[in-house]
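This part of the workshop introduces the protein records we will be handling. Backbone structure tokens are a discrete shorthand for how the chain folds in space. Once this layout is familiar, the rest of the handout is easier to follow. The record below serves as our worked example for the rest of this section.
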Amino acid sequence: MISFTAAQLNRALVILVVFHIVVIAASNYLVQIPFQVIGLHTTWGTFSFPFVYLATDLTVRVFGKVQARKIIFLTMIPALIISYLVSILFFEGTFQGLGVLNEFNLFVFRIAFASFIAYLAGQLLDVKVFSRLRDHNRWWVAPSASTILGNLLDTILFYSIAFWASSDAFMALHWPEIAVVDYCFKIAVSMLLFLPAYGVLLNLLTEAMMRKEGK
């Protein structure tokens, strides 16, 4: 694990917490907007949420699992609140006006709550798997395994809690298909884009710290 000063750790912690909250809120909003790819139903949230796993795996690699868990727990409540507010204000891609804040939207709350539960379970599994495999002689084994398993648990919990017997007829009917497509796209995006990005960012961080220590 690379050695950082207390100030650097605190700064990194704030940045990563904010990053997690932004990605979760954006994903919970984008999951309301479905589209089709080669005839299969999915949502735009598929392409934003893998950023969370990239950030978590880098955190475990550089700072250790204690800091990673700290980020997860610091993120949960703010992410739940912000996700709900953003999603009702811009429901299905349209600004609804501030008046909607006076009404409780069960459909949006289920999405935010499902994200809360799925994020907690998926990220804790991701941290556990990554921590077990972080010392493997091939750097890509830990992020690959943790992403595959963490995303699987996250996807199952999120879609079943958010959309089973939903008031939205389309999502109630298609959520199992969307969940499968969503998971496949997440893994494809993670393996093809985020895994290489993880390797590049890890090397940059390591080189930067080695240069600093050499001064």
The longest strand covers residues 34-37. The domain at 6-206 is CATH 1.10.1760 (Arp2/3 complex 21 kDa subunit ARPC3). The radius of gyration is 18 Å. Strands lie at 34-37, 40-43.
